[in-house]
Amino acid sequence: MSLNLLTLQSILRAIKILIDFLIVWILIYYTLRVVRNNSRTVQIFKGVVLVILVRFLALYFDLKVVLSLADFVIQYGVLVFVIIFQQEIRGILERLGKSTVFSSLHTLSGNERERLINELVSASVELSEKKIGALIALEQGHSLVDYIKTGTPINSAVSADLLTSIFVTTTPLHDGAVIIQGDRIACASAYFPTTALDLPTRFGARHRAALGISEVTDSVTIVISEETGQISVAENGKLTEMDEDSLRDFLNVLIQNAEKEVSNRIEFKPTRRLNLGRLNVDPIKIEKVDETDTPRHFFKKKEEKSSIYDKEDKKKKVGFFKKFKEDKNDTDESDIEALKSVTKRNKDVGGDGDGEE
Asked: What is the rounded average pLDDT of the residues 217-229?
């Protein structure tokens, strides 16, 4: 009996240790996510690590004054941490409160998902070609009901024609975002919180709103620039520029494989990723580029340039030999004329001598 009780207590103790470990692991995981997604917090995180390191060194070498200062900083550091990271902490709490077990994309059939992808890609390409600014958000695990309330309800099936007509500047619903739940347009002209990051001036309010909603939810937002027509996708606080093919690949991963975990998603090839690390904004991962990632027109232009240079070199060579030949012919003709004149002069001199004798 005592042996069974001891075994039960050991199992309960192991379960408590496991739960304790999981809670600590979750806290560390979310802390690292906050630090990773904001370059501003990286510097502060380094300062916190430095203070903790100094505290341990002071304790080891028995530096009482340094130890007292480190304890004072750590004691009031929690309050300072909450004040500094209030926006990030609020974003994490909002994500936890709005999380749902399944994404609205899970309820779609295979044909509905394929149709949704085609309509989104067609609309994005058409808006990009016409340089019409657009903001299209796809709801996933986190509910966007609060943001849907800020817009005009539509509750219509997703179609490229409808999306294009919504964002035409002459329509009253063009200013704002379209929110898609499943394969239906929930609303138009919705407003999102803007990001606090320092972005380049070429990014407007739409890009800021797309990054802002991606920082507080797990939604994916398609942005079309009104100035350049560039297609971009905002996800997890990162902005990625894409073309038609890479957008289709990305949506296939997002929608067709919505039931899979994010870690099992296949890779897609972006056309270009923004490197904003020097601008004190979110560092964006830049993948290694090989020959397959380089646009075809780059090699085409390179070949055209090389062919132009080859033609120019050929022309120069032909011109050089032609000129050399002409100069040689001129030299030969001048030598012949000089030889004729000398021969004639000798004959004249010889004739005069014979006459005098």
From this structure: 92
